[in-house]
């Protein structure tokens, strides 16, 4: 590990599964009992805003009730102790990385505890509900939506992510199925950059063959063990 300075880590729903937050691609193909196009697209929101606001109100309450697990905490330790570059890119909308102590975190699919005003473009930290149509604290309009990147929308801060991958010596993917682009393509970018690539996941994913190494198991065991290897 002595040749490694710059690390990029991609996390997905699997890292929060042991904190009680459900992953997306269960066998029934539903997200918390809804088809994704109903609750995770701009068209779904336009068709039935009340349903979508209620859906994310529930997700927000679920995030607030969850606790970081050993995998989040181990990444918090890595962030505190790693003197090289580190970027934890998460597809998750929960704040369990931050509560696990990590600081160098980028939420490419938005954040469940953030809301976005469609009238004045302000974002606000939000722990309450939106189904009761609160007005924006900045402009007073009733125009706030969840600050979530839906299917068909552009993930956040992509240039920053690709720049970090281009500099990476090591790329690690944790708890993601590799089903959703652009995140699913990061491993190929990392391979092009000459980084070592490691996957930590419960089961083989769609992208497993693109990694130098895949370790199968629960994130709460695999992640602390890997971080112990890195920090020695
Ligand atoms: N430890 C490690 N991996 C786990 C665990 C666990 N305890 N539990 C589940 N997994 C793995 C599953 O085997 C699966 O491969 O985590 C992966 C979760 O995959 P998805 O449910 O598809 O979640 P994710 O890859 O994060 O989804 C990507 O899809 O719907 C969109 O925007 C949403 O960010 C999300 C994106």
UniProtKB/TrEMBL annotation:
It comes from Aurantiacibacter gilvus. Belongs to the sirtuin family. Class III subfamily. This is NAD-dependent protein deacylase. Zn(2+) binds at residues 117, 120, 136, 139. The active site is at residue 109. NAD(+) binds at residues 12-31, 91-94, 175-177, 201-203, 219. 2 residues (Tyr-56 and Arg-59) present in a large hydrophobic pocket are probably involved in substrate specificity. They are important for desuccinylation activity, but dispensable for deacetylation activity. One of its GO terms (molecular function) is NAD-dependent protein lysine deacetylase activity. The keyword Mitochondrion does not apply. It is found in: Cytoplasm. Pfam families: SIR2. Its cofactor is Zn(2+). Its EC number is 2.3.1.286. Residues 1-232 form the Deacetylase sirtuin-type domain. Keywords: Acyltransferase, Cytoplasm, Metal-binding, NAD, Transferase, Zinc. Substrate binds at residues 56, 59. NAD-dependent lysine deacetylase and desuccinylase that specifically removes acetyl and succinyl groups on target proteins. Modulates the activities of several proteins which are inactive in their acylated form. Its main location: cytoplasm. Binds 1 zinc ion per subunit.
């Amino acid at each position: 590990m002595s040749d490694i300075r710059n690390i990029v880590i991609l996390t997905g729903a699997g890292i929060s599964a042991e904190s009680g937050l459900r992953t997306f691609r269960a066998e029934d193909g539903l997200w918390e009992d809804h088809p994704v196009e109903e609750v995770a697209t701009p068209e779904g929101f336009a068709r039935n805003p009340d349903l979508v606001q209620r859906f994310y109100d529930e997700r927000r309450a679920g995030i607030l009730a969850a606790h970081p697990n050993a995998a989040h905490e181990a990444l918090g330790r890595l962030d505190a102790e790693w003197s090289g570059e580190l970027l934890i890119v998460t597809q998750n909308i929960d704040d369990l990385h931050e509560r696990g102590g990590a600081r160098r975190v980028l939420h490419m699919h938005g954040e469940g505890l953030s809301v976005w005003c469609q009238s004045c473009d302000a974002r606000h930290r939000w722990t309450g509900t939106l189904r009761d149509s609160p007005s924006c604290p900045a402009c007073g309009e009733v125009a706030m939506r969840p600050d979530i990147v839906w299917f068909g929308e552009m993930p956040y801060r992509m240039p920053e992510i690709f720049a970090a991958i281009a500099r990476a010596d090591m790329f690690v993917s944790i708890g993601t199925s590799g089903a959703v682009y652009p995140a699913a393509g990061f491993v190929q970018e990392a391979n092009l950059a000459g980084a070592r690539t490691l996957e930590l996941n419960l089961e083989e994913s769609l992208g497993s063959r693109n990694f130098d190494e895949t370790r199968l198991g629960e994130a709460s065991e695999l992640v602390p063990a890997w971080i112990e290897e890195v920090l020695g």
